[in-house]
Structures
1.
Amino acid sequence: MDKNTFSTDSYLLACYLLSESCQLVSIDRTNPRRMVFIFQESKRRKELTDNFLAYQASIEPHRFHSAQRDLKAMIYQRTTG
């Protein structure tokens, strides 16, 4: 794993980070049964993840729902080229 990125296979954590404006670098689709979400590493990303895993995160529901829709669209998006 690159020191400048953070990877997770947790869909909910990825939605939360996305809703908190963390930069999603890519989605690793190597294993079709398990997507890995790769985020730009930052101190804020680490704090958000720590809060999420400690059940201390809070988010406005509509923003979280919007992030879920956006991430699902990215997952099912077909790349061309």
2.
Amino acid sequence: MSEHESSQESVDEQEPVSETASEEVLVLDEAPDPDSVLPVWEPTGHANVDAALEGLHALDGADLEAHAGQFDAIEASLRGVLDGLAAEDESV
């Protein structure tokens, strides 16, 4: 039996995924009061972190194809902040 046939056989033997879990939907009786809904994020006071959070917030209306690139840029920005904080701790 070839490697491809073996891997195909193991795929065929898997249990079917229950569709009921993915069909569950939460339906609100009425829209929440806009005054009681918290903003997506609150400013942290750290300019680079706030810019990254704003970038995430801006993805809401962006084309889905742009998300991956934006996520990479945001992750790199936050990684830079964390690396800078780690360097500060090491120097103390």
3.
Amino acid sequence: MPKREPKGKSLTHGPVADIIAKMTAMKKTRVAEIFRVIADEIEFEFEPAGEGGYTVTVPALPGCVSEGDSFEEALANIKDALEGCLVVARRRGLPIPRQLQGKVA
């Protein structure tokens, strides 16, 4: 028995079709996994990048971001970036989160 569409509403055109298309696209979207790593008593968040490698942030210091093609490279890069962020923060007299004080030169 063929399916009938409700009178006055089309599932192939209009707002309903747009919603169905968006939901279908969402199902195809890969959800990135963010994982936390503590190294040298500092917490880092790693997110796999779509093109490969990782994007890394320091939750205690928003704006401190780096990346790397491998986990090891990303970790080394974020440590270098963190050191640079802390140098700039000290020079400008900006507050440094307690958990980062004395951790990096």
